[in-house]
Write a structure and sequence with these properties.
Blueprint (H helix, E strand, L loop, with lengths): L8 H9 L5 H14 L6 E4 L1 H16 L10 E5 L26 H8 L3 E6 L38 H8 L5 E6 L5 H7 L2 E4 L19 E6 L2 H11 L29 E5 L9 H16 L3 E5 L7 H16 L17 H12 L2 H14 L4 H22 L5 E5 L15 H5 L6 H5 L4 E8 L5 E8 L4 H15 L12
Parallel strand pairs: 2-3, 2-4, 7-8, 7-9
Antiparallel strand pairs: 1-3, 4-6, 5-6, 5-10, 9-11, 10-11
Length: about 500
């Protein structure tokens, strides 16, 4: 029998149904692998006892023919989703030891479908970063290595712990959040699939906020079908979230027909950025040929305001962060600096509780919202955001989806770009525009660079059209036949 940790979610569901193994056996296999790879630092909190209890309950439900859609599947949960009676930290000292007494809507939906939670994954503090090196709990290490080189690489961020855990087969899938690329870029760096749905498709209730108009929950998995199955479970209207859309959730897995004949795929000319490595451009061209071969029509399109996307994002996101993070003051929960008078306590709690990147973004955001600068920066950025969104709506009048690279490089060494915040922010150059427009987008592994590291292709769709995004992604996946895994994974 295939090693249990090598199975996809759909394969595991079939095996559980056929009684080839139990949920307890499947869960224990992943717990064992987690123990072998603690050096990746993918988890902040591991919950093996809880997982085994949930697995036993799953086996009981299955024996009673009452199994949920994902019953018995071991998942990892990004430590930004509040989990009842399980520590939730957002990878920040200021929330160290915080144990919620409520469940996020996304995790509740997954639990309702029978998933097993292996633990809470590491991330950039408050999801602010693209390298997973800003966590209070230390760096996450990408399970991939360059050819003949043991240099530790970033898994991408902010959802790097989730991406690394899926890539290293510590779990069968994982939740993530994407504000400017925090699912898609780590998926590309770790050689797995990752989808950010349309803003409002998944509830944000119970998810710790970074930038409220941008944050959206999504999934990581080993292939496109597994991503569709997870998204199916997570999506849906939630009255507790005013930004949740009251729309019917389609059968996402059913969209994976492989038939894209007659679909029109746009290639944005503005994404051909000077300095992008040739191998990334070459992979993009290969992706275009794959879609042509599958019967799609390829056209060049223009998104003229794309060049302003990063600047716009780095005004809006920090501004919203400065507002959202004002609640962390040491009074009601989390870390408290018990020194001096009340004002000293406030100031020292925030100074000591937040990391450098979080403080940098709070200060940028507070400045952008301050008197005299609000109109010049924040309001202007919102106007440009509208233009960026309109660009996408214009091109979607003549095409069904867009194809671009996911990231401007493969995974880089930890610490390589950290002395240059601007260079770090450029990691999101291909992913931020879709986030600003609230569009569904997915990264699919499509090849390796000359150093043996995975590269992803990026599919962007119309609002609420995750089905086409998944369908096109499935064609890319079938064409690429990307079967590579990190060397640390032991096969049969």
């Amino acid at each position: 029998m295939t090693k249990l940790t090598n199975l996809t979610i759909s394969e595991a569901l079939k095996g559980l149904e056929n009684k080839d193994f139990t949920a307890v056996e499947l869960t224990q296999a992943h717990i064992d692998v987690m123990a072998q790879h603690k050096g990746l630092n993918a988890f902040i909190t591991e919950t093996p006892e809880l997982a085994l209890e949930q697995a036993k309950s799953s086996d009981k439900r299955r024996s009673e023919r009452n199994a949920g859609a994902l019953d018995g599947i071991p998942l990892a949960i990004k430590d930004l989703f509040c989990t009842n009676n399980v520590q939730t930290t957002a990878a920040s000292r200021i929330l160290d030891g915080f144990i919620p007494k409520y469940e996020s809507t996304v995790t509740q939906k997954l639990f309702d479908d029978g998933i097993v939670m292996l633990g809470k994954t590491n991330l950039d503090e408050f999801a602010m970063g693209s390298s997973n090196t800003t966590s209070y709990y230390g760096n996450v290490i990408n399970p991939w290595k360059r050819n003949n080189d043991d240099t530790e690489l970033t898994p991408g961020g902010s959802s790097g712990g989730s991406a690394a855990a899926v890539a290293a087969q510590l779990c069968m899938g994982a939740t993530g959040t994407d504000t400017g690329g925090s699912i898609r870029q780590p998926a590309a760096f770790c050689g797995i699939s990752g989808i950010k749905p349309t803003y409002g498709r998944c509830s944000r209730w119970g998810t710790i906020a970074f930038a409220s108009s941008l944050d959206q929950a999504g999934t990581f998995a080993r292939n496109v079908k597994d991503s569709a199955l997870l998204l199916q479970s997570m999506a849906g209207y939630d009255a507790k979230d005013s930004t949740s859309a009251n729309k019917v959730v389609p059968d996402f897995a059913a969209a994976l027909t492989g038939d894209i004949k007659g679909k029109v795929i746009g290639i944005p000319k503005e994404y051909r950025i000077d300095g992008t490595p040739k191998e990334i451009i070459d992979l993009w061209e290969k992706g275009i040929e794959w879609l042509k071969a599958a019967g799609a029509e390829i056209i060049e399109v223009s998104l003229p305001h794309t060049k302003y996307a990063l600047a716009t994002y780095y005004v809006i996101a920090p501004a919203e962060a400065s507002s959202n993070l004002a609640r962390y003051d040491g009074v009601k929960f989390g870390y408290r600096a018990d020194e001096g008078n009340l004002t000293d306590m406030y100031e020292l709690t925030r100074a000591q509780g937040f990391g450098e990147e979080v403080k940098r973004r709070i200060m940028i955001g507070t400045y952008a919202l301050s008197s005299g600068y609000y109109d010049a920066y924040y309001i202007k950025a919102q106007k440009v955001r509208r233009l960026i969104s309109q660009d996408f709506m214009n091109v979607f009048e003549k095409c069904d989806a867009l194809l671009t690279p996911t990231a401007p490089s493969a995974a880089f060494a930890i610490g390589e770009n950290e002395d240059d915040p601007i260079k770090m922010y450029l990691n999101d150059v291909f992913t931020v525009p879709a986030s600003l427009a609230g569009l569904p987008a997915m990264s699919v592994p499509a090849g390796l660079d000359k150093q043996g590291l995975p590269l992803g292709l990026h599919i962007i769709g119309k609002p609420w059209d995750e089905e086409t995004v998944l369908k096109v992604s499935g064609v890319i996946e079938d064409s690429a036949q990307f079967k590579n895994t990190p060397k640390i994974i032991k096969k049969d």
